Amino acid sequence: MATTLSSHHAVYVGSFDPLTLGHVDIIKRGAAIFDRLTVGIGINPDKNPLFTADERLSLMRNVLQKQTNVEIECFEGLTVEFIRHCGARVLLRGVRTLTDIETEFTMTLANRALDPEIDTLFLMASEKYTHVSSTLIKQIAQLAQGTALSKLKEFVPPEVVGPLLQKYERTR
Ligand code: ADP
Hints:
By secondary structure, this protein is an alpha/beta fold. It has a single domain, classed as HUPs (Rossmann fold), CATH 3.40.50.620. 43% of the residues lie in helices and 22% in strands. It contains seven helices and five strands, in the order E-H-E-H-E-H-E-H-E-H-H-H. The protein has helices spanning 21-33, 53-63, 79-86, 98-114, 134-143, 146-150, 158-167, and strands spanning 6-14, 36-43, 70-76, 88-95, 119-124. It has a five-stranded parallel sheet, with helices on both faces. Strand 2, helix 2 and strand 3 form a beta-alpha-beta unit. The longest helix has 17 residues, at 98-114. It starts with 5 loop residues before the first strand and ends in a 5-residue tail after the last helix.
């Protein structure tokens, strides 16, 4: 527990199932503020993800390879414990809507109770991506026809489109 945590190092956690352009936007903005940004892909045994943790890790490493101060890891267990293990003092979160803020507020208080040394910083989603979520992306990939399906590339990085459509055995 006696480790010194760095204020110049932030951790951004999520399921990233799959990574969207909304996530990428937060990652790039976070990486421009902090010297170092660790992205933590949460492995939650209660969730049944579309992409395995290894698939998410390799897709994200592929998309973010040019971000030299960004590293990506999978983790199990409590977020605050992962952040402390990374030696970071800041948890970075993205917020899109008032509903997001309400959920985040409760989670922030819980995290603070668990580890008061770790603070949470929120970045507001860019207006372009406010409506983008991994859930919406999966619905489009599974159900959309024609033009709507071709809109996928406006919401996810190009590297994600192929693997996503493959999961639902669809073609572009
Ligand atoms: P979780 O399983 O924690 O909801 P997500 O992968 O959906 O994980 O999201 C991870 C983080 O990214 C959360 O802070 C979430 O609010 C934020 N986020 C998700 N989508 C967007 C977006 N379109 N723009 C900005 N932030 C986003």
